[in-house]
Specification:
Blueprint (H helix, E strand, L loop, with lengths): L3 E5 L4 H15 L9 H11 L3 E5 L7 H12 L4 E4 L9 H10 L4 E4 L14 H10 L2 E4 L15 H10 L4 E4 L8 H8 L5 E3 L9 H9 L6 E2 L9 H9 L5 H17 L1
Parallel strand pairs: 1-2, 2-3, 4-5, 5-6, 6-7, 7-8
Helix pairs in contact: 4-5, 6-7
């Protein structure tokens, strides 16, 4: 049975040695891996994971080209890069088009590291472009462990966005919104939005996690670990500990992701 981790991070070898310790200090989280692609592949082997989506984040507009070029060097049957553009880039529409033209399946955005709020009107043309091209968008949602608690991408903002763009393939990470799970259950469950489970089961009461999953479309829950910040095998074991049943586990661990990536 295929296993796909839809939410991982890695860095060029030349940057990993400094980037991971800096982010560990910022978030007060000890990474499970060193942030290199070879370490991610070894982790995948240990956890029985077939493919990982590697999500990059352009923290400045000028990083677009370097991220896109690096994505092409790590791309393989097992590593599926999701490049990033910066929403404040003057060339953002063309950059989205270039990501699509190079055959990538999606993009990653992060409202804290890229300093935006999901409901800013200036972003609407960018979301429209992503939707029209059929790209997947992996969006950090909810609070972030390394930042003050600003409501940058909360469940209501997500609901409003997907109402505006009903065909947008939107992945709300961290089971809909990190540490805003009561609102996820009230506002987002049942809607046309994907949830990944990255870095959420570690913090969430199992019964609450099961309640959210049970009330959401079965084909719209994706496995994610947030590696290197969490261990992939441990994330699988947390999912298995929910005792969702064989079919649900298989869908979450890979079948839902396979269908999404094939669409």
């Amino acid at each position: 049975m295929i296993r796909i981790d839809f939410h991982t991070h890695a860095f060029p070898d030349s940057l990993a040695a400094t980037t991971v310790p800096a982010l560990e200090q910022k978030s007060n989280v000890k990474a499970a891996l060193n942030g290199r692609v070879d370490s991610l592949l070894a982790s995948m082997d240990a956890a029985g994971i077939d493919q990982s989506v590697v999500c990059s984040i352009a923290t400045r507009p000028k990083q677009f080209r370097a991220i896109l070029n690096w994505s092409s060097t790590i791309r393989s049957d097992r590593i599926i890069p999701f490049p990033s553009f910066h929403p404040k880039s003057d060339n953002a529409p063309a950059e989205i088009e270039e990501i699509y033209n190079q055959g990538y399946k999606g993009v990653k955005l992060h409202p804290y590291y890229q300093n935006f709020f999901l409901d800013e009107k200036r972003l609407l043309p960018l979301f429209e472009k992503i939707s029209d091209l059929g790209l997947i968008i992996v969006m950090h949602t909810g609070f972030d462990i390394g930042f003050p608690r600003e409501r940058r991408a909360d469940p209501q903002k997500i609901a409003d966005l997907i109402d505006t763009f009903p065909n947008l393939k939107f992945i709300a990470t961290h089971l809909g919104s990190w540490q805003q799970w009561d609102e996820v259950h009230e506002i987002l469950t049942g809607k046309n939005v994907y949830f990944d489970i990255a870095f959420s089961l570690e913090f969430l009461d199992p019964d609450k996690a099961k309640e959210i999953i049970a009330n959401h479309p079965a084909d719209k829950i994706l496995f994610g670990s947030d590696s290197p910040w969490a261990d992939q095998l441990s994330a699988i074991n947390l999912l298995k500990g929910l005792n969702l049943g064989h079919n649900s586990e298989n869908n979450i661990l890979g079948l839902n992701a396979k269908r999404l990536l094939s669409g």
